[in-house]
Amino acid sequence: MTAFSALKTEVMQRVNDPGGNTITTAIAGRAINNALEDWTNTVEPLWRPYGWFVTAKQARYALPSDWVKPKTLMWYQNGADKEIGYLSPKEFQRKGYMAYRAGTSNPEAFTIIDGDLWLGPAPGTTSNSTTLNGAISSTSAATIAVTDGTKFHSNAGWALVDTEQIMHQGISTNDLTLCKRGQGGTTAATHLTGATIYRLDLVATYFYVPVALSASTDAPAIEQRWQKALLYKAISECYQLLGRDEEATQQMQIYDQKKMEAKREVRRLQRETYMQVYSPYE
User: Fold this and answer.
1) Would you say residue 280 lies in a domain?
2) Strand pairing of 129-131 and 196-199?
3) 205 and 120, same domain (yes or no)
4) Residue 178: which of 149, 143, 147 has the closest Cα?
5) 94: burial class by Cβ within 10 Å (0-12, 13-18, 19+)?
6) Which of 146, 191, 204, 251 has its CA 20 to 30 A from that of 259?
7) pLDDT at 279
């Protein structure tokens, strides 16, 4: 991955000249973040999973702050393993789901209203939970011991401990195995023995807005092979600030070519996998 500090250094090396036409590190960083925003808006929308602990009779669930648009919503409670379909708010209300009716088992549809995800009907059962059987001292720990492994799905599943979401890809008695830490935009952390760990029965994949790069070690959340393409737009923006319009136009033309190459690659991969991936920006 190409670090933010390396991208800023390269922009400044290519733009600044001995004659005093220079930009600051802050300007270079802003230009790179502007390029990243443009790329994710027009070429490669970013998406990731996020899970919720389900409470009986609760119909509304807060969305992540960077939520743009849902891709899929999966339901894993009461032996189900199914995708829940989306309804427009008007259709959701027409079917009576806004009446806070609690179901006896599984929701049938969802909608998005005023920054919340609504389930219809509201679930009738609260998600399972247990406790950690031993502290998690490493943020990269791939096996997590729990008090009662039967509270989780027999294969893969999602869990929440403190504020960290975890995906486990296997289970062995009371051990969650092959864990992927810090999922759903959360951060991997240490956790004390006895801490409550919740099973997440509602899991969405959603398109999200990338956080602006700030730390020196941050890297753009796009494929590594395209990360340096951001330089062309960033350099173009910096040239414009310095009044070097002809050079700015040349760099922008190269950037547009890189975007076209990336778009063609995205379409090719979609055709090869027979998977329709829609963009929330279209």
Assistant:
1) no
2) antiparallel
3) yes
4) 143
5) exposed
6) 204
7) 46
Q: Which two tokens stand for residue 184?
A: 């759903």
- Please list, in sequence order, all residues whose beta carbon lies within 8 angstroms of the beta carbon of residue 2, skipping any fewer than 6 positions away: 219, 220, 224, 227, 228
175: CB partners within 8 A, 6+ apart: 143, 144, 145, 146, 149
Please say whether the beta carbons of 120 and 95 come within 8 A.
yes
Query: In what side-by-side order are the strands of the sheet with 175-183?
Result: 129-131, 196-199, 157-161, 164-172, 175-183, 144-145
What percent of the chain shows pLDDT beyond 70?
93
Q: Are residues 148 and 185 in the same domain?
A: yes
Tokens describing residue 124: 């009738």
128-147 per-position pLDDT tens digit: 999 999 999 888 889 999 99
- Largest Cα separation within the chain, whole Å, is 74
Q: Are residues 142 and 231 in the same domain?
A: no
Same domain, 135 and 21: no
Among 206, 210, 162, 224, residue whose Cα is nearest residue 188: 162
Domain boundary among 148, 167, 199: 199
Q: Are residues 72 and 119 in the same domain?
A: yes
The answer to whether residue 94 sits within a structural domain is: yes
Residues 178, 170 contacting (CB under 8 angstroms): yes
By residue range, what is the domain housing residue 238?
4-44+222-271
Kindly report the pTM of this predicted structure: 0.77
Question: 32 and 57: one domain?
Answer: no
Residue 272: per-residue pLDDT: 62
Q: Which amino acid appears at position 83 of this protein? A: E
Ramachandran quadrant class, 20 (left: phi over 0; alpha: psi -120 to 50; beta: rest):
left
282 within some domain: no
Nearest to 32 by CA among 186, 174, 219, 175: 219
Q: Give the whole-angstrom CA distance, residue 245 versus residue 186.
A: 42
